[in-house]
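Supplementary notes for students who missed Thursday's class. We covered one full example, reproduced here. Read the sequence, then the structure, then the short commentary at the end.
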Amino acid sequence: MSTSQTDIRSDVQAIRSNPRTQVLIIGGGINGIGTFRDLALQGVDVVLVERGDYASGASSASSHMIHGGVRYLENGEFRLVKESVQERNRLLRLAPHYVKPLPTTIPIFSTFSGILSAPLRFLTHKSGKPKERGALLIKVGLLGYDSFSRDGGTVPRHKFVGRKKSLAKLPKLRPDVKYTATYYDAAVENPERLALDLVQDALATGPHARTANYVEAVGANGDPVVLRDTVTGETFEVTAEVVVNTTGPWTDLTNAALGEATRFMGGTKGSHIVLDNPELYEACAGGEVFFENNDGRIVLIYPLNGRVLVGTTDLEADPSEPALCTEEEVDYFFELVGHVFPTITVERPQIVYRYSGIRPLPGHGDTAPGFVSRDYRIEQASFGSSKTVTQLSLVGGKWTTFRALAEHLANDTLALLGRSRTVSTTDLAIGGGVGFPQTPAAVTNWVKANGADLGEERTRILLARYGTNAAKVIAHIVAAEETDAPLATLPGYSTAEIGYLMGEHTVHLSDLVLRRSIIAFVGSLDQAVFDELSELAAAAHGWSPERLADERAQAAENLRFFHGIVVEASNKTAAGAVN
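Structure (token representation):
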């Protein structure tokens, strides 16, 4: 990629100019970011580096669920389920701008199925011959699930109904359904932006917290860690008292680069597709349909951001290879939809987005993928050949428990530093969740207080999109020297708003379309939108025609290869150059 003066980033310079820190966190997925925020709140001098964009690896490939993991009960992971349910309820309070309650319905086609096989699965963690769970087994599980959620009734208890009421609520369900069980979990509408909120929370604590994306750990030189800026290719060193590896499914590969051979990880691949299918969207009746398929894999179908998310697979994966949603997996997803909604037709042209990622699971030998523990642990060792630096490696972890995990990892780090916790994150609202209005009257009041310059309709859109951080977006729009105007190709966004997003640690065009917004996720990224966003991104960062051509080519290839979105990289830009 062509480089220029604009590639000399202030966040990288802040690290290079002061290459000593107490803690270096390698890996800016949700768990690394959560730990970064927690340590920053304690006043620890902490640096976070991420080889790609924030939350662009495993954290970008989730099912968008904040859930207790009802099926983990069968694995005997009671501690994890209890923590997950409590953290789900907590995130509904701390991040209400992005985390929303989601009614989840299990269609049940038998009464006693699975009663005999469940104990064997519990004891052996082998899948054996898959069998759908019957009503009795599901009822027992949901009673246990509800028992972990006794904190003031954040979400309602589960409900069981028979065939008649089930079909009245979900008339497109298979007609042989006997019962449905409905309980509540939560969905995170825009996980990448929630992760970015955590980054901003950390940086707001002061200059002792520093971070840079597109910086990777490539080796060790005694005590220092050797880092490489992937934009310029330049390397530099950082020395820390504690090195924390939170690179998820790539933990072993990172340790190998740092000079230590480990075999902690054994992740599995999970893929999803996003459908523009109004009939399926309506059939979900505003909630998730969740069940176990005949092959033992968990299936979810639910409305999200105006589309329908369908997932997921659970396949062995090699973290050294890119994770892709294959055509075989697409066929599998279509079969799943037909399994519960037999009269609804789903076709490939309805797929607006596809994605895949590797779960950061521990090594599991011959344990069936679906039974691999979703819990986490922390491995401690000396850092390489150093006699003074300690390394912590995170094994496992998931979106739902990131706050509790970060608290645990931060506590271990504080102990190594000889420090005590001074700030609790237990009840600390996240980013745009601070002061977020949660009733219609409160929303109206917030809009009146903050929307004088942009008007009520636009202010409501920004509040829904960014939480109370919308106030910062509004201030940027109002202060912008250029006259703000709706995008010609996507009037739900504006030119100054895109300028604001480009200032949020946005290094590449792909960051803008995939993680600073949900434009690609919902299928809004056609050629005209891609062209207009490219020009706005180039203007915001002062890219040369050559850099813009590189950015367009890189983004177009990423969109095609990983997400099934086809746009042309070449385009006549506003400046008249042909890229």
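Commentary. The two ends are 14 Å apart (CA to CA). DSSP finds 18 helices and 18 strands in the chain. If anything here is unclear, bring it to office hours.
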